[in-house]
Design a protein that fits this description.
The protein has ten helices and no strands. With 191 residues, it is mainly α.
Length: 191
């Protein structure tokens, strides 16, 4: 994405409320191991030498994740990028400056990932990372948790309640697509 934003991008930046979609995408942007995912697909991704220039690798990878999170077909993913500023920002596209991949390009990248069995490897990498983060968080909470059980106490510690919510988010919130949809108010989108 370029240094200078369009007028629409500037207006969008100035809005006061962040939507659930924006919060979700910001969280996924921070949590997912983009460098490791890029390294996983790099040996198989087309370089664009001797043909048309290929779309940036991470852009296409982010679109692939959007398709899974929002249950988007290839044409619906293209449409969503034109419709949603939040999705464009997550993918790294500035409308009017950057090319938005068409549905055929999205299809080719998806087929490339499936043909080389990279989808399983990508989701396994993400699952392992999140499980590790969940274990680290659980260990930190157990070290700082009160000695009595919350269920046995008539007054639960607010910090323990926050911590238990964080554990559940770390262990299940990112792993289950249904949990994503419930947590962020996402419904099934029409294909």
């Amino acid at each position: 994405m370029g240094e200078q934003q369009t007028f629409a991008g500037l207006a969008w930046s100035g809005k006061k409320k962040q939507t659930r979609r924006e919060l979700f995408l910001a969280e996924m942007n921070a949590v997912l191991p983009w460098a490791e995912l890029r390294a996983l697909i790099a040996p198989h991704y087309p370089t664009g030498v001797g043909g048309r220039r290929s779309m940036p690798q991470e852009r296409m990878l982010r679109i692939y994740f959007l398709q899974h999170w929002y249950d988007l077909s290839d044409p619906a993913a293209e449409d969503a990028l034109y419709d949603s500023e939040a999705m464009r920002r997550f993918v790294g596209v500035e409308l009017g400056e950057d090319a938005i991949p068409d549905e055929t390009t999205i299809l080719h990248v998806r087929h490339l990932l499936e043909r080389h069995q990279l989808t399983e490897q990508m989701f396994d990498l993400v699952r392992r990372l999140l499980e590790h983060r969940g274990r680290v968080l659980l260990r930190q909470i157990e070290e700082n948790a009160p000695t009595h059980s919350v269920f046995m106490s008539s007054q639960s510690s607010p910090s323990y309640e926050v911590a238990s919510c964080s554990i559940s988010t770390a262990l299940t919130g990112y792993v289950s697509a249904e949990s994503f949809r419930v947590r962020y108010g996402l419904g099934r989108l029409a294909r």
